[in-house]
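# step 3/5: fold
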Amino acid sequence: MISHVFIGVGNFTRALDFYTALMAQLGLALKFSDPARPWAGWMQPGHPRPLFLIGAPFAGRHDAGNGQMTALLAPSRAAVDSAHATALAHGAVCDGAPGLRPEYHASYYGAYFRDLDGNKLCVCCHE
């Protein structure tokens, strides 16, 4: 259903460092990085889609969207914990500590944070 998700960033070099560390925790591979454009994309190894992309917004200035959130699937609860800790260690702001969220479903385990540009992300496991 999803081809790709694009997250706008204000400082590409800083965001690339942040997302490179985060994606490593989730087992996602860097497919490309082009600082001249600037943009970069990650994928699940062996699967060309969906892509997770970061870069400078087409229209220039970045503004974090109110009410928008991107949720990244983690392979385990431990990966959720690790990804959340890595994000915070790289400058993210906690927007919900790792834990069960039974209001979503009995096995939903997630963590929430805002990246360096204020974009809201979730890392979750449904197992």
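# step 4/5: annotate
The chain has a mean pLDDT of 95.
# step 5/5: archive (pending)
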